[in-house]
Fold these 2 entries.
Entry 1:
Amino acid sequence: MRVFFEQLVNGVTVGSFYALVALGYSMVYGVMKLINFAHGDLFTLGSYLGYTFLVWGAAWITERAGLWWGVLGAILFAFLANAGAGILVERVAYRPVYRAGRLPLVVSALGMSIFLQNAIMAVWGPRFQVYPSDLVPVASLRFLGLSLPLLKVVILFLSLGVMFVMYWIVEKTEFGAAVRATALDREMATLLGIDVQRVILFVFTLGPALGGMAGVMNGMYYRSIQFSMGWNYGLKAFTATILGGIGNIPGAMVGGVLLGVIETLLAGYIPGGGAWKDGFTFLILILVLIFRPTGILGEKVAEKV
Amino acid sequence: MKSRRLVAFLFLSAVFFWGQVFAEEPIRIGLQAPITGSFAIEGQMARQCVEVAAELINEQGGILGRPVEIIVADDASNPRDSALAAQKLVSQGVVAAIASYGSSVTEPAADLYERNRVVCVAYGATAVRLTMGKERRYFFRTCGRDDSQGEFFARFAVETMGWRRIAIMHDNQTYGKGVAEETKKYLEPYIREGRAEIVYYDAITPGDQDYSAALTKLRESNPDVWYYTAYYPEAGLLVRQAREMGITVPFVGSNAVPNEDFVRIAGLEYVVGTFMTQEPLPQDLNTPKAQEFFAAYRAKYGDIPSSPWPIYAADALFALAQAIENAKSTKPDDIAQAMRTMENAEGITGPIVFTERGDRKGVPYAMYRYNEKGQLELFTP
């Protein structure tokens, strides 16, 4: 039983990373109907930016500010810098092809993914980079006989917090109504005087920013980062988004955590399951697409006529 | 051009003639190695090693009373140049070639030597398929095969360390799975005797970052030792995550684990005390041949080679010399036959004996351990 709980905690931890990445994915899809393939690489970019912040700010963190401020600083830095990167990507890769339809947009996103991956490799090198271990807090909590690293708890609550904030923005504010309206019918929204361009920009700013945040936390938690790691996270987050119901914010969160837990439990309990972890993930994707294409929290949407 | 060719021809035939008369025509042995390209340092060290070995042989009277001459060809560590280099050596009439570093580079050359009936001894090509794929009558290697590590680990774990409960983890890729399966195979006799037990045998997903699921399972199997048979990026993460989870079982990595990045990813504090199954590093070889060879090498180049692979190139020459001596002939068929049957060849890395397929028998492996400075140190229990 203890082992089961431990595996559960392991799964929730992995899942909360998937969820954070999935949030940005889902939002972009919701509004743009675009599978943003560059999202995973923006995640990588975020983890490299956080790494650079920690390395450059090492003296400031250890002498003046303390470790937790360093963590916060790195997260904020990656959040803001990635928001900027998101705006740039939108301007360069997406805006010129909006009118051309959905397929060119997807192709452009794929191209952006390849570009970002190679740019990261060119700037930081193809080797693994390792987050400096003396700059990441290692304290842990004891809870019901399990040892939980404090960082794990912080990551979990941070992603939950982010989800609530986003949910609140989209569901409760006037701007959120504009976002929802754009997601439903862009043309109609334009006719009603909604600044669709602003909504799109918002989505492309916040999505990558969240991805960047997830990237830093991922780097702090697992320490070693590499230029190509985003692709895998992108695929997992995509699966999580489908699982939870694409375009749905709580759905992305639920899907991410659920995917992490399922993956971990299957790997942990099926003999020889470790090698099949990614296989399980995509099996889930296929099953959901066949039997419940709207995902767990997705509602049936009437066909537009 | 023509006249220059004529001069060369006359010169060569003069040399040939002179050789005929004095019966001291050198025995030409080729060395194909990456003298340029991304593994240039390996190739250059191989050349130095083979040349020092040739000097030692010549000082002791040569082979069959004839001096050895080494002809070097550069394969730049790529398969295309490899075939060209092999062609070049063949057309220069070598009786045997030492070739090369890297399995995929060696393969096309091995085919070419095979077609031209020239004995080829690889020194840095460990892929199983080179000997176990299609049959080659003229191909040998002095280095180990990717799977012979498994045999070494099984023996070491059970007989030397007395570890009973053994956990084996791999990454489901050719190399990692190969070593894992061989380890399992060689543990079988011990399992039948009741001296060992495989309590965990599973693969992880390469490229992943979170291995807590696999590690929780590993911990519950309560092993005495944990053998990981794949590459360093995952190994680094595994070691760190395991130690952070409080798993203190001894970690043993296979020879693709130890390197600088492994230490960086796992963190020095967790790397200290981890074991590695690895070809013996040059500084830890102490056979009589090794002492003699390293003394000569040091006298010429100031230090001993820093990589284990060039040593196998020198051993290839020592093996060839002994085989030619045994065969009393420089005909490739006789040399190949002698290589298969000889039992008296002494190399720097110990006795050199080949199997029917051309693999080396009893390839030396050693157990290494990381010390406090993050360096590999020979482990003696």
Entry 2:
Amino acid sequence: MPETGEPLRIEIDRIIHEPARLLLVAHLYVIESADYVFLMQSTGLTWGNLSSHLSKLEEAGYVALEKDFVDRKPHTMVTLTDAGRAAFDAYRRQMKQLFEDLP
Amino acid sequence: MPRATLEAVERAAWLRLFEDGIWDIALGLLLFGFGLSVLTGMTAVVAGGIAAGLVAVGEIKRRVAEPRIGRVRFKARRRRQLGGVSWLLALLSLTGVLVFLFLLWTTRGSAPPWAIAIRDHFLIVIGLIWGGAAAFGGWWLGVRRFAVYGAMIAAALIAADLGGGLSFATALLACGGAIAFSGTTLLLRFLRRYPRRSAGDDDA
């Protein structure tokens, strides 16, 4: 802990820190994969919100989208990648550390 | 996020698979079918209906539940739990055959007195096996209401054996009807709670 009055820098993964994305990553962390409908029902997000947050997670390399066809309709399954799993583990450790010493 | 909460997230996702009540309806109709076959003697027709119904369960789940709650693949531990149910059903079928062979054996003159005593109370044996299997399945999957169904099946068949005003057929019809009714109530609640969703739906 520095003894100067410099502001502290907290290294938090802002991609995961956003509440809706945190919820999404938490769900994908405990299951293997799910489609959009399952994630919508589990998180309460709208289709538009879900799509936008999954795009951000995909850009960060945290989720992988696997597209196929079910009954001749396009269907997407979402999986947390190894990088996403590691990032979520790191995020949990950081948050735990951050609040550990609070009186 | 603390571990307990992650566990709760996983458990909620898992239990959603059983919220539709379709397995409850299948179990209820299975018992009801058995009851009908005992009552009417139309064993072949009822057995055919039961077999067709069990085959249809997967398709009904795919058409009714999946468009509403989506598709999910669980980790290996949960997949093993689902696989365990198939083993349980196989074990139950085998037990049924063994009970039948045992009953056949006791009709011969050479059967010892203990075997005849068991034969005279075979409803208790069947009640404990079927009720125990339903309760074990409920415990194994973490779906507690199946334990209640198990207790109900065992109690009804034991009451029928002890002459509690129920015959074998009416015990099965009553249990099957009650379980199917419970499943139908769950299904109606499920249909209200989870409207059908498709790509681009944005009214959540």
